[in-house]
Amino acid sequence: MDSKERADIIMKLAEEFEIKSALKESINSYSHGMKQKLVLIGALMHNPPVWILDEPMVGLDPKSAFTLKKMMRQHADSGKTVFFSTHVMEVAEKM
């Protein structure tokens, strides 16, 4: 992935997770939820065919959790694989 493509994808995902304005800040200043978003961006930016996510909604605000669930559904609907763990049975049942 060239640097321009990488930067474009990072900005797109950062915008979706509403963390774009914080990208230039030190990671030490990030909350747990912001760090979770950053890790998700790093994991998803290469659009891997298989997603393996361990409790991916932990620490996310409701809007970001909704965004991630939508992304997971779209990924699975495109014929790719999403494995995830959750303690929230409602999320597991709906996904």
Write the layout of secondary structure elements.
Layout lengths: L2 H14 L15 H13 L5 E5 L7 H16 L3 E5 L3 H6 L1
Parallel strand pairs: 1-2
Question: What would you note in describing this structure?
Answer:
There is one protein chain. The radius of gyration is 13 Å and the shape is globular. The protein has 95 residues and is mainly alpha-helical. It has helices spanning 3-16, 32-44, 62-77, 89-94; strands at residues 50-54, 81-85. Strands 1-2 form a two-stranded parallel sheet. It has one domain (3-94): P-loop containing nucleotide triphosphate hydrolases (Rossmann fold, 3-Layer(aba) Sandwich). Helices cover 52% and strands 11% of the residues. Strand 1 (50-54), helix 3 and strand 2 (81-85) form a beta-alpha-beta unit. The model has no long low-confidence stretch (mean pLDDT 93). Residues 8-57 form the ABC transporter domain. This is ABC transporter, ATP-binding protein.
Q: Give the H and E element order.
A: HHEHEH
Could you tell me the mean pLDDT?
Answer: 93
- In the CATH hierarchy, the architecture is 3-Layer(aba) Sandwich
Tell me the helix content.
Answer: 40-55%
Instruction: Identify the CATH class.
Output: Alpha Beta
- CATH superfamily name? P-loop containing nucleotide triphosphate hydrolases
Q: Which range does the strand content fall in?
A: 5-15%
Class by alpha and beta content: mainly alpha
The CATH topology label is: Rossmann fold
Question: What does the main sheet amount to?
Answer: 2 strands, parallel
Weakly predicted, low-confidence segments:
none
Instruction: Give the radius of gyration.
Output: 13 Å
Instruction: Work out the helix count.
Output: 4
Name the overall outline. Answer: globular
Number of strands: 2
GO molecular function, one term: ATP hydrolysis activity
Keywords: ATP-binding, Nucleotide-binding, Transport
Domain ABC transporter: 8-57
Organism: Thermobrachium celere DSM 8682
